[in-house]
Amino acid sequence: MNQSNLNFLNLLKIISACIIAFFLHWNYHFIQFLGINIKSSILSSRIFLFLLRGPIGYMSVELFFIISGFLFAYVYIPRIIKKEYTFDNFIFKKFIRIMPLVVLTSFICYILAFITRINDIKCWSTFCGNNINIISLVYDFLFSGSHVINNNLSLNGPIWYINVLLVCYVLAYGISYIYIHFSNKIIFIFPIVLGIIIFETGWQFPFLTLSTARGYIAFFEGIILYFLINKMDELKKQVKIFLICISLVIIIISFGYIFFHFENYSNFISNTNVFVSNLYIFFDFIIYPPLLYILYNFEWVNNFCNTRFIKYLGKISYGIYLWNFPILGGTYLLIRFLKLEDEYTVKYWFLIWIIMAVLHFILSVLSYNFLEKRFYYRKKSTRK
Fold first, then answer.
1. With contact defined as beta carbons under 8 Å apart, do 83 and 233 qualify?
2. Which end of the chain has fewer CB atoms within 10 angstroms, the N or the C?
3. What pLDDT sits at residue 338?
4. pLDDT digit string (tens) for 134-146?
């Protein structure tokens, strides 16, 4: 597989992080508590609802999982096969990369949630509706929340993804080790089947929750996609062009169907119905695979992404995702403490959105350069 054809992944990571932070969480967890009447503004347009409360924002997390699985197959499976990575080295590497910012942002969320609780300020349940105690904080610090165990939300809501991702990494390492002895890629399909079974049965057991099901399906689909795209590199150019055209048609029809078929975007996330469960399958198996195949084969896209700027944005996308709740919660508390009228926040909602978006990038750059990067490389050299 040509490494230069993978530059598009950085672009997908930053786009997904921004959609989740600036659209989905902004709308679902923030503006409704500021009194913004979505029906009386530009936000009521179908395209904004599609991004703000609809499938695009919600399913961007699945894209994160797929990218993580894809990169695991590309970077780690060959090294695991060559026994260049022991299990403890692999887990240590992932924890050092992931956990420092998780601890920092979770602690900030804990403080903000505590202030919200003692001042009896109405807030969204995923931010301050959980138990504010040491046990919750320990769960966040050590395991990125408890989603794997009981599907409970964390004080820093978005880190449920990190919690499930770590489990996927451990499971993927174990399956890769088995793959060394059996050399049959079909074993990577088993977690996908398990995830579908969890969706169908509604299981809620440790490591068998709806959240882990989302991770099992998307992460291991990313691994399978890597194997498939790598194999399809051997196809003739004419066949590739045909497959790209078919993939493009599938994506256009799929997005058109979702965009015009589903009307009630406002209740999309809260409805645990067939639509939601089918949407996971729809995006995971119908939309994202052809999307990755198209972008992998579009040379001009990868050339565009082969810049230091795009690569850097890909690196700070993790920070944008994790800083989201501290920024939303902090801004919300500031507005309430300043006792700004709801009419004022409605009038200047776009300015607030711009300021918060800029703040996401500033904090992400700072945390990457002064926390993630330095801590990771320092520990890496110590480990050696």
1. no
2. C
3. 80
4. 777 777 776 656 6
| Residue 106 exposure: Cα atoms within 13 Å on the Cβ side | 29
Which phi and psi (to 5°) does residue 62 adopt?
-60, -35
CB-based burial label for 6 (10 Å; 0-12, 13-18, 19+): buried
Residue 98, judged by CB atoms within 10 A of its CB (0-12, 13-18, 19+), counts as buried
Match 């790598």 to its residue by tokens.
230
What does the DSSP 8-state code read for residue 154?
P
DSSP label of 155: S
For Cα atoms 131, 133, 139, give the angle at the middle one, nearest 5 degrees.
90
> Residue 297: which domain range?
3-383
Q: What is the DSSP secondary structure assignment for residue 307, as one 8-state letter?
A: S
Six-digit token string for 249: 């048609």
DSSP, collapsed to helix, strand or coil, labels residue 143 as: helix
Among 8-12, 21-25, 191-195, 295-299, the minimum mean pLDDT is found in 21-25
The residues with which 205 forms a beta bridge, in sequence order, are 208
CA-to-CA dists, residue 246 to 72, 243, 294, 300, angstroms: 27, 5, 10, 19
Asked if 106 and 159 touch (Cβ cutoff 8 Å), the reply is yes
- Candidates 344, 375, 342, 319; CA nearest to 32 is 342
Q: Residue 265: what pLDDT?
A: 45
Q: What is the mean pLDDT of residues 188-194?
A: 95
Contacts 24+ apart (CB under 8 A), 107-110: 107/137, 107/141, 108/326, 108/330, 109/140, 109/155, 109/156, 109/325, 109/326, 109/329, 110/136, 110/137, 110/140, 110/155
In the chain, how many domains are there? 1
- Distance between CA 323 and CA 356 in Å, rounded? 11
State how far the Cα of 317 lies from the Cα of 61, in Å rounded to an integer: 12
Distance CA 137, CA 245 (A): 49
